[in-house]
Amino acid sequence: MNKLITIRKADGKWSVRAGGAVLGESNNALELSEGDLEPVIYFPREDIAMAFLDTSTHRTHCPHKGDASYFSIVTKSQTIENAAWSYESPIEDVARIKDHVAFYKSDLVTVERI
Predict the structure, then answer these.
(1) Which residues are CB-neighbours of 72 under 8 A, at least 6 positions away?
(2) Are 4 and 23 in contact (CB under 8 A)?
(3) Please, which residues have CB within 8 angstroms of residue 43's CB and are 6 or more apart in sequence?
């Protein structure tokens, strides 16, 4: 495993909400820690209401994780551009995050342990 990145099962149950809607809840989320950055919660896709997510054309590359694909969150009242991402074909060292989605926390998107 990459020494810069650690992945472990996130303790407890986690939820993600946007625009008053619960996008998902999971007891099987992963916590990815990368260097000095705040840990990021990755939700299994099967625990996310993917109907709220529209595929974006935005892409980024991380030398430690691979190429990220982005999603915009669409609620009844708004679209939150590029608010979620996933690694469709992550680098082998972080293969556990495949088929998972992470979300940018903001005043519009809440990721929390419940």
Answers:
(1) 53, 54, 56, 79, 80, 81, 82, 83, 84
(2) no
(3) 14, 16, 24, 26, 29, 100, 101, 102, 103
Please tell me the pTM assigned to this model. Answer: 0.94
Mean pLDDT for all residues in the chain = 94
Query: Quick one: which of 21, 6, 15, 11 has its CA closest to 79?
Result: 21
Q: Which domain holds residue 55?
A: 5-113
The residues, ordered by sequence, that sit 6+ positions from 30 with a Cβ below 8 Å of its Cβ are 7, 8, 9, 10, 41, 42, 96, 97, 100
Which residues of the chain, if any, have pLDDT below 50? 1
Q: What is the CATH number of the domain that holds 75?
A: 2.170.150.40
- Do the Cβ atoms of 32 and 7 come closer than 8 Å? yes
Query: What confidence score (pLDDT) does residue 3 get?
Result: 65
Q: How many folded domains does the chain comprise?
A: 1
